[in-house]
Write a structure and sequence with these properties.
420 residues, six-stranded mixed β-sheet, 19 strands, 40% helix, 14% strand
């Protein structure tokens, strides 16, 4: 029978984990779970989980067993609950078996600290081979008709059958919540990847334009690209985005597609389409659109506009989505059309906003995904290795486009944080 440690011997700091033999409860791939696996794999006897489908499978060579297998286990181990949901039920389940466990995120201070998030993100950056360099334009020169974010060089994601499927016309769909759905951002990213591949001689001009035509089928009369499925927003999961919601990131992506299509065709239909996209970007979030302002930071900042990736109220100011929307405005402004002039005005206003709020995303040299920790008063910022790489690349691009030192400052600061 498994021998339990006394309550007063439970882990107070991370140092104690290295002294114990561990059994992890919960095979969900949370940050805590992955971090313990990465750093204490030799200490882990096995993993337990209530999901029968996982029994007998392995993660990093560590077997997943049913919870009842604890009854037969001998020796002295510490059980660690690694999930951030259902932990109360899991703890009660063990108590019914006369066993105790440590809830990692509640009882080990390190796991609920900013230091943990930063350390995890930095490790993740290198383990998952994230790279801000891969998003930088060739020769470090950004133009509205260049390979967008260098995506033409990195098209492997289109072959990931666990994520992407195709419809009968060849348009990409994604797998989301056990269904196959159209995601306007993903469709735009597919078309922009084809553009890069066209520039690189891998795909033809026709293949890009055919895909751009397919994109137009998802544009509504009001210029919006709508998501036809419900989606729970992580900062407020009780209030779903109901089917028909919109994203400023999708609107910006579409402008980047249309600017490139117009550059090689001169066809006025792209101007007509882009004008409607731009008009929709001027509609406020509280009126069903994607435009917001900084009032949720301070009321006196309401004159500073933002374009929101997530149409939440209050706005969370998601950084990558705002940056993608801004570069879309810039791309269309380069067409020298009448709507291009309007796009230029919005671009310049958004750049002013971005310069003002950029320091708020800094977390000891890493960057936060959004300002949810400020607006929604979450305990910790949301730090992601992948999005950090996107933020770094955009800081370079905006420094190139504006020559403003603040973009260079954060480009240097944030890229240095992930240097080995």
């Amino acid at each position: 029978m498994l021998k339990q440690r006394e309550k007063n011997e439970k882990v107070e700091t991370m140092n104690k984990l290295g002294d114990d033999k561990l059994i992890l409860f919960g095979a969900a791939q949370t940050r805590v779970f992955q971090w313990i696996i990465r750093n204490y794999a030799d200490n882990i006897k096995f993993i337990i989980d209530n999901d029968e489908a996982k029994w007998g499978t392995h993660i990093n060579g560590i077997e997943i067993k049913p919870v009842d297998s604890l009854v037969e286990e001998k020796g002295e181990y510490q059980i660690i609950i690694t999930t951030h949901s259902y932990w109360q039920e899991m703890k009660e389940q063990l108590r019914d078996m006369n066993m105790e466990a440590i809830i990692a995120e509640k009882e080990i201070p390190f796991f609920s600290s900013k230091d943990f998030l930063i350390q995890y993100a930095k490790e993740d950056y290198h383990i998952k081979h994230c790279s801000y360099e891969q998003f930088l334009p060739k020769d470090k020169v950004y133009t509205y008709d260049s390979d967008y974010m260098n995506w033409g060089e990195y098209a492997e994601w289109l072959e990931d059958l666990n994520y992407v499927v195709r419809d009968s016309k060849g348009a990409v769909m994604i797998k989301c919540n056990n269904q196959e759905v159209y995601n306007p951002v993903t469709i735009c990213e597919w078309v922009l990847t084809l553009w890069g591949q066209y520039l690189n001689g891998i795909k033809s001009k026709k293949e890009f334009l055919d895909a751009a035509e397919l994109l137009t089928e998802f544009q509504n009369e009001d210029g919006s690209f709508r998501y036809n499925y419900d989606y729970p927003y992580y900062l407020n999961e009780e209030n779903y985005f109901k089917s028909g919601w919109v994203s400023g990131m999708a609107q910006g992506h579409a402008l980047s597609v249309y600017a490139r299509a117009y550059s090689i065709t001169g066809d006025n239909k792209w101007v007509v389409l882009a004008k409607k996209v731009l008009e929709f970007m001027c509609i406020d979030v509280n009126e069903g659109g994607v435009k917001s302002n900084l009032q949720y930071l301070k009321q006196e900042l309401s004159e500073y506009i933002t374009i929101e990736e997530w149409p939440a109220i209050p706005s969370s100011y998601t950084l990558n989505g705002f940056m993608y929307a801004i570069i879309g405005l810039y791309d269309w402004s380069c067409t020298k059309t009448e709507s291009g002039k309007k796009a230029r005005s919005m671009y310049e206003k958004c750049i002013i906003t971005l310069k003002l709020i950029l320091p708020l995303y800094d977390v000891n040299g890493m960057s936060s995904y959004d300002l949810g920790h400020i607006i929604y008063k979450t305990e910790l910022p949301n730090i992601s290795a992948h999005y950090h790489s996107v933020h770094v690349a955009f800081c370079y691009i905006f420094y190139y486009l504006t020559n403003d030192s603040i973009f260079r400052e954060y480009y240097e600061r944030w890229r240095n944080a992930v240097k080995q």
